[in-house]
């Protein structure tokens, strides 16, 4: 009997491994198919005359992404340090808002920055009557791109690094406090080692996100001088109708991203987006506290003001008309449906890969099961979209037919790195701890999952669903090649409104996107966590 | 004399209330035993100042420690682990406990002397990560010695050591406590520690200390 149970357990571990490898293989196959479609189209897709100067694109993308990464990390470190040191009313909400930076739709953030720093923004409105000075269009160009990237990625970095600081063992903190370490020694001895260990993975992730940035560069770039590969690919397809140029650009971007992602894939996962945060009980002296307070005020304002700008701009009388318009309703339904589909697919893929990885002790298998998580980072949204676009064309189908499926699939792949880094560590830990017990008790695969794993990953499941939904909801990269007047999502609708100078409509859509993103990201993990507690 | 006068504490939302009455003389080691969750570490946290009592007072030689934050209390602590910062050398770990205004030469002499006292001469430059478990505890004890605070709190400090190393560490703690007239409180669930070290012993039950 015991032997049969052991065989059963070994059997389900093999089944999990097989399922995981099948998913990894399918994703690899899909990527290869998309690349093959691009390779075949390279020679006959167009003249390539519209190909912009590659060296310029590379240089600008690298400079922009490098500066964005450095500034984001510095801002993130300062804010994480300050949040770790201070306890104040609203701290929990601020931390949650910083965590939500990862899922804020880029096009909404760009609109928020314009609302504050643009020619007609709050700052100019306040500055001009008082001083006669104007910042002009300071939100456009490299400065605007950097500001938007730092706003999004600095907040993300702050949340990740704060989690690392809060994970410091309690005894370490007691020891340091008991030894009377001053603020600087405390940072150097206690904080810096944990921050430093997180930096390579965090910096690589932020660099790739900025290097492949699309919506922000499209809205705030201010012209070809600052465009990234993503925007150049989009321009080649949508504006110049030159598929050859688009494919050439996509191939170069693939090579560059892969060159970055391959060494980065060995770095530790960096996501830590949720969980209770504890305010400090070890107070620094008055001067460090003043510095921390200043950092919180500046960082908080820099982050919250653009969000406030989106809210203020969106709450206009024209909002009611927008919400009842057929175009809005259709785009909203598409966005919600695609978001839900992407979220469920992301969860299914991440669970299959993570449980398979936990079941394997073979190093090669574990690497193979981890690689799909990096597919999106190496093959970014617009490139992925271009591949699908070419496949759909090659099959002779109208692009609108498969667009919803493409959107769900591509957005699920985009969410996968973050889903994996959220789910894989706890599933690994649960299996390390309980597999022998499950073996001893002869639990079946279903029992092991429903009784052991599922109850313990409630919050992480909620985070993955929220991430999958929000990434898809805010996506502008994939839809950029499939969007039409008749097939639209909310970000696509917003971009078109911005392009047509219908700023009230754009602001209204931005507000709706903001509300849905924040609500889902803040509430879904909480609800799943509550559900877990209710069951256990 | 270290005295806990009716020091009471309760975790928010928990019905249990701790009330501690305890006296520790200079040069004395008092052992406190009890099952996990009985409040042993809470007792140490109250003495160290990490927790504030609801009522009662902690006094050393008649002076109240209640208003002093942990970093200003005359207290050293040794945990079961995590006593050292692994990325620093042994000497740098010892130095962390010294006053910042101590001249460089005096600092170096104090560190060398403390490491020598615990039998680790010549290991000052070694990264802590490359020390054995016993050596790490010795370095932590050397830091305690260098700081020479009159109260030493031991939170299961020998639990992770092998039998021989634990024996050596116990001898060292006993010798240093007597020689420096520290007021030492040891919390443990290991009878060996109690038998080897305790001048007096207490059991923690239902939130209060019982002699015996």
- The succession of helices and strands of chain B, N to C, reads EEEHEEEHHHEHEHEE
Distance between the termini of chain B: 20 Å
Number of helices of chain A: 23
Strand content range of chain B:
25-35%
Strand tally of chain A = 0
Principal-axes shape call of chain A: globular
Largest sheet of chain B: 6 strands, mixed
Uncertain runs of chain B with pLDDT below 50, 5 residues or more?
none
Structural class of chain B: alpha/beta
Strand order of the largest sheet of chain B: 6-7-8-3-9-10
Radius of gyration of chain A over all CA atoms, rounded: 24 Å
* Strand-residue proportion of chain A: under 5%
- The averaged pLDDT of chain A comes out at 83
As residue ranges, the low-confidence spans of chain A are 1-8, 267-271
Rg over C-alpha atoms of chain B, rounded to the nearest angstrom: 17 Å
Say how many strands of chain B there are.
10
Structure write-up:
- The complex is a heterodimer of chains A (536) and B (212).
- Chain A is mainly alpha-helical.
- Chain A has helices at 2-44, 54-85, 91-99, 106-117, 122-131, 142-166, 170-178, 183-211, 215-220, 229-239, 243-264, 286-314, 318-323, 326-359, 363-370, 375-378, 381-394, 399-441, 445-456, 458-474, 479-482, 490-499, 503-535.
- In chain A, helix 4 (106-117) crosses helix 6 (142-166) and helix 18 packs antiparallel against helix 20.
- In chain B, strands 6-7-8-3-9-10 form a 6-stranded mixed β-sheet, sandwiched between helices. In chain B, strands 2-1-4-5 form a 4-stranded antiparallel β-sheet, covered by helices on one side.
- Chain B has helices at 40-48, 90-95, 104-117, 133-147, 163-180, 191-197; strands at 2-9, 18-24, 28-33, 55-60, 63-64, 75-78, 151-155, 183-188, 200-205, 208-211.
- Chain B is an alpha/beta fold.
- Chain A binds chain B through residues 169, 171-172, 174-175, 177-182, 185, 189-190, 193, 281-283, and chain B through 45, 48, 50, 69-73, 75-77, 79, 81-83, 85, 87-88, 96-97, 100, 143, 147.
């Amino acid at each position: 009997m015991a032997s049969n149970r052991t065989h059963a357990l070994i059997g389900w571990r093999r089944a999990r491994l097989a399922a995981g490898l099948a998913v990894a293989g399918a994703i690899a196959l899909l990527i290869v198919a998309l690349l093959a479609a691009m390779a075949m189209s390279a020679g006959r897709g167009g003249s390539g005359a519209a190909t912009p100067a590659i060296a310029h694109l590379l240089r600008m993308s690298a400079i922009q992404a490098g500066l964005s990464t450095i500034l984001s990390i510095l801002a993130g470190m300062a804010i994480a340090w300050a949040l770790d040191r201070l306890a104040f009313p609203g701290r929990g909400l601020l931390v949650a808002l910083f965590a939500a930076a990862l899922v804020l739709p880029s096009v909404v953030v760009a609109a928020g920055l314009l609302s504050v720093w643009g020619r007609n923004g709050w700052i100019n409105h306040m500055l001009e009557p008082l001083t006669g000075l104007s910042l002009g269009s300071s939100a456009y160009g490299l400065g605007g791109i950097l500001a938007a990237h730092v706003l999004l990625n600095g907040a993300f970095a702050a949340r990740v690094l704060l989690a690392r600081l809060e994970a410091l063992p309690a005894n370490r903190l007691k020891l340091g406090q008991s030894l009377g370490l001053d603020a600087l020694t405390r940072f150097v001895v206690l904080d810096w080692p944990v921050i430093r260990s997180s930096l390579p993975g965090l910096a690589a992730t932020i660099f790739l996100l900025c290097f492949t940035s699309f919506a922000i560069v499209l809205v705030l770039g201010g012209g070809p001088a600052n465009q990234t590969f993503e925007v150049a690919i989009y321009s080649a397809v949508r504006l110049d109708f030159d598929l050859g140029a688009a494919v050439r650009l996509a191939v170069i971007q693939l090579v560059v991203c892969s060159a970055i992602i391959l060494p980065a894939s060995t770095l530790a996962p960096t996501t830590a987006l949720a969980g209770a945060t504890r305010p400090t009980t070890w107070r620094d002296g008055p001067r460090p506290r003043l510095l921390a307070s200043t950092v919180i005020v500046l960082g908080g304002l820099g982050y919250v003001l653009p969000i406030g700008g989106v809210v203020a701009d969106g709450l206009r009388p024209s909002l009611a008309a927008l919400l009842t318009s057929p175009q809005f309703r259709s785009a909203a339904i598409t966005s919600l449906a695609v978001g839900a589909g992407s979220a469920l697919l992301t969860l299914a893929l991440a669970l299959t890969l993570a449980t398979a990885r936990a079941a394997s002790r073979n190093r090669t298998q574990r690497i193979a099961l981890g690689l799909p998580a990096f597919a999106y980072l190496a093959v970014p949204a617009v490139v992925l979209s271009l591949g699908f676009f070419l496949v759909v064309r090659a099959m002779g189908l109208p692009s609108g037919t498969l667009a919803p499926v493409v959107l769900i699939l591509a957005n699920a792949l985009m969410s996968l790195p973050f889903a994996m880094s959220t789910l894989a560590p706890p599933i690994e830990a649960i299996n390390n701890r309980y597999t022998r017990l499950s073996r001893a008790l002869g639990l079946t695969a279903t029992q092991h999952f429903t009784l052991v794993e599922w109850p313990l990953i409630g919050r992480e499941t909620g985070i993955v669903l929220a991430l999958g939904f929000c990434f898809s909801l805010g996506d502008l990269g994939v839809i950029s090649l499939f969007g039409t007047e008749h097939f639209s999502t909310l970000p696509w609708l917003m971009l078109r409104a911005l392009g047509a100078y219908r700023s009230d409509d754009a602001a209204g859509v931005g507000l709706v996107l903001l509300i849905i993103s924040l609500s889902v990201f803040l509430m879904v993990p909480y609800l799943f966590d509550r559900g877990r507690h209710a069951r256990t | 004399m270290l005295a806990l006068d009716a020091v009471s504490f309760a975790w928010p939302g928990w019905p249990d209330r701790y009330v501690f009455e305890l006296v520790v003389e200079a040069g004395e080691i008092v052992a406190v035993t009890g099952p996990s969750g009985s409040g042993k570490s809470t007792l140490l946290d109250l003495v160290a100042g990490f927790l504030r009592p609801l009522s009662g007072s902690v006094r050393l030689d008649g002076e109240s420690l209640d208003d002093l934050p942990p970093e200003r209390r005359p207290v050293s602590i040794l945990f079961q682990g995590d006593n050292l910062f692994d990325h620093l050398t042994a000497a740098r770990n010892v130095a962390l406990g010294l006053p910042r205004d101590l001249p460089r030469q005096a600092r170096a002499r104090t560190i060398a002397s403390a490491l020598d006292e615990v039998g680790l001469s010549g290991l000052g430059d070694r990264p802590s990560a490359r020390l054995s478990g016993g050596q790490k505890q010795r370095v932590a004890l050397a830091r305690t010695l260098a700081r020479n605070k009159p109260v030493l709190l031991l939170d299961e400090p020998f639990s992770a050591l092998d039998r021989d190393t634990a024996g050596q560490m116990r001898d060292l703690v006993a010798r240093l406590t007597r020689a420096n007239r520290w007021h030492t409180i040891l919390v443990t669930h290991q009878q060996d520690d109690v038998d080897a070290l305790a001048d007096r012993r207490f059991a923690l039950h239902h939130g209060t200390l019982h002699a015996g």
